[in-house]
TrEMBL record:
Membrane-spanning segments: none
Region of interest called Disordered, as start-end residue ranges on this chain: 280-340
InterPro entries, sorted: Bact_OuterMem_StrucFunc, OMP_bac, OmpA-like, OmpA-like_sf
Keywords: Cell outer membrane, Membrane, Signal
GO cellular component terms, semicolon-separated: cell outer membrane
Protein name per Swiss-Prot or TrEMBL: OmpA-like domain-containing protein
Domain OmpA-like: 342-457
Signal sequence residues: 1-24
C-alpha cells in the first residue's frame, strides 16, 4: 500500500514540473489462436433408481464399457463392444497476463460422445434358451458449447481450470435390437410368466451440461495436456419404468432416471498459431521545457575610427634559433585489472554481493553503489556483453507481493546501470519472488538476493 502511494505522489510531482517518466520494465505481450484435437475415455456415474412397489429392484454400478453378447427380442444373439468415449476438438483465443506468464482463454468445443448405460436385473431368468442378467444401452450424441479457461504457467509447464457450458444433441442409441431412434418405446423379455418389461418416457432430444475441468499443461505454446472433467447434466435424458414378473406375479416396479453424468479422462494436443507477440521495453525519459526565444537587440552603430599615423618601420632583430627539445614518449596505457565478472559463464547465475535495499522496498541504499559501479565499468569495457538480472525474495508474506517486490528491485538495479552509461538493450530483468529458495526454513538471508546471468559475450 505504501509503495503504491509513493508511486502516485511521484507521478503528480512529475506532471507539475513539466516532466514525464515511464517506468522501465520488460514483458511479452502475446495473443494467439489454439486448435486442440482431443480424445477422452469416460466412467459413467450410476443413475438414480427408485423402487415404486414390490421387493425386487434393479441395481446400477460405475461402468465405462461393455463387451459381450446381447439377446434380441427374437432370441438371436450378437457380440458388441460399447465404450464411453469422445473425440473432437477445441479452438480458443488465448492471451497472456501483463506481469506474468499466466493466461486466459475463451473459445468453442465440439465432440462426438458415446455413453454406456447398464441396468442389472434383481434376478436371472431364461428367455428362449438364454440367461438374461442385465439391460444395456449405448447413447450417441453431439455436444457443443463455450469454454472459459485460466492457466497458471511456471516456465514450460502449468495447470489449468476450465469451465464449459455445453448442449448435447441426442442422435440415436444402440440396444439389443440394433440402432434405434431416440423415441419413447415399450419392450421387454417375458417367457413362461417370468421376465421384465420396460417403458420409457420423458425423452429429451437435447440436454444442457455444466462441465468443470482441471488439467496439466506441458509446453509453453503447443504441447500436450492431460485433464479430468465432470459432466453434470441439468436434466435427465430419459426415464424408464421397469416391471419384473415371476410366475405371472409382479414382484417389483422401479423408476430409473437415465442421466449423462460422466467422469471423462482427456488427452489434448494444442497447436498454437501466434497472431501477435511483442516484447515491450520502456525506459525512463525526461523532457525539459523548451528555452524561450531570444529577443533580438539592435546593435549600436559604430563611430568611424580616426586614421592612425604611420610610424617609421623599425629594423627587426634577428629571430633566436629554436632549441630542439628531446622527443617525449607517451606513457604506456594502464592494463585493465581483472574483475570477478570476467569469470562469469554463459547462463550461469552469479550472486551480486553488497546489494542493499530498504526493508520491504525496492529503493537502493548508498552502500550498493560501489558494487554496481564495478558492474557498469565492466560492461562498458566489454560492449558485447548482455546480461539478465534475476530477483529473489524470502518466503515470508504474500507470494504475489513477493513476486512484485523481486521485479521492482531488479528494475531499480537496471535503472542505476543505465544511468551509469550502459545501454538498456543489454540488460533484461526477471522476477521470481519466493519460488527459488536456496535455504530453508524461512526467514533466511541468502534467499533475498539479486543474481546476474550473462546471456551473451
Amino acid at each position: 500500500m505504501k509503495t503504491t502511494t509513493l508511486k502516485f505522489l511521484t507521478l503528480i510531482v512529475g506532471i507539475s514540473t513539466c516532466t514525464f517518466s515511464v517506468t522501465a520494465q520488460n514483458y511479452t505481450r502475446q495473443r494467439d489462436w489454439v486448435v486442440a484435437p482431443l480424445y477422452g475415455i469416460g466412467l459413467v456415474i450410476p443413475s438414480r433408481i427408485t423402487l415404486l412397489s414390490g421387493t425386487e429392484a434393479p441395481s446400477n454400478a460405475w461402468v465405462s464399457s461393455y463387451r459381450g453378447e446381447l439377446v434380441k427380442s427374437d432370441g438371436t444373439t450378437y457380440t458388441r463392444n460399447y465404450r464411453t468415449s469422445l473425440w473432437g476438438f477445441e479452438t480458443y483465443y488465448r492471451w497472456k497476463d501483463r506481469r506474468s506468464d499466466n493466461r486466459w482463454s475463451i473459445g468453442l468445443s465440439t465432440a462426438w460422445q458415446r455413453q454406456v448405460f447398464k441396468l442389472n436385473h434383481p434376478f436371472n431368468f431364461e428367455y428362449k434358451g438364454h440367461n438374461l442378467v442385465s439391460t444395456v444401452w449405448n447413447f450417441n450424441y453431439l455436444r457443443t458449447g463455450l469454454m472459459l479457461r485460466r492457466t497458471w504457467m511456471k516456465e514450460w509447464a502449468g495447470t489449468y481450470f476450465q469451465l464449459g457450458g455445453y448442449y448435447s444433441t441426442l442422435f440415436y442409441r444402440n440396444t439389443a435390437d440394433g440402432r434405434e431412434k431416440m423415441e419413447e418405446l415399450t419392450g421387454g423379455y417375458i417367457e413362461g410368466g417370468t421376465g421384465n418389461r420396460t417403458k420409457t418416457y420423458n425423452l429429451q432430444k437435447g440436454v444442457p451440461l455444466i462441465v468443470p475441468e482441471i488439467g496439466m499443461v506441458y509446453g509453453e505454446n503447443s504441447g500436450i495436456e492431460f485433464s479430468i472433467a465432470y459432466y453434470h447434466p441439468l436434466q435427465s435424458v430419459i426415464q424408464a419404468e421397469t416391471t419384473f414378473y415371476r410366475d405371472n406375479l409382479t414382484v417389483g416396479v422401479s423408476n430409473t432416471n437415465v442421466s449423462q453424468r460422466v467422469l471423462m479422462f482427456n488427452v489434448k494436443l494444442p497447436i498454437a498459431f501466434v497472431s501477435k507477440r511483442k516484447t515491450i521495453s520502456r525506459e525512463r525519459k525526461e523532457a525539459t521545457p523548451k528555452p524561450e526565444p531570444e529577443v533580438k537587440r539592435e546593435k549600436p552603430k559604430k563611430e568611424p575610427k580616426p586614421k592612425r599615423e604611420r610610424k617609421p618601420i623599425k629594423e627587426r632583430a634577428p629571430k633566436p634559433e629554436k632549441k630542439v627539445e628531446p622527443e617525449i614518449k607517451p606513457a604506456p596505457k594502464p592494463v585493465p585489472t581483472s574483475t570477478p565478472y570476467d569469470a562469469a559463464l554463459i547462463n550461469k547465475p552469479m550472486i551480486m554481493d553488497n546489494l542493499y535495499f530498504e526493508l520491504t522496498k525496492s529503493d537502493l541504499l548508498e552502500s550498493s553503489h560501489k558494487e554496481l559501479d564495478q558492474v557498469a565499468e565492466w560492461m562498458r569495457a566489454n560492449p558485447s556483453v548482455e546480461i539478465r538480472l534475476e530477483g529473489h525474495t524470502d518466503k515470508i508474506g504474500d507470494a504475489e507481493k513477493n513476486l512484485i517486490l523481486s521485479r521492482d528491485r531488479v528494475n531499480a538495479v537496471r535503472e542505476y546501470l543505465i544511468r551509469k552509461g550502459v545501454s538498456s538493450a543489454r540488460i533484461a530483468t526477471k522476477g521470481y519472488g519466493d519460488t527459488r529458495l536456496v535455504c530453508k526454513p524461512s526467514p533466511c538471508e541468502k534467499n533475498r538476493r539479486v543474481e546476474m546471468v550473462v546471456t551473451k559475450r
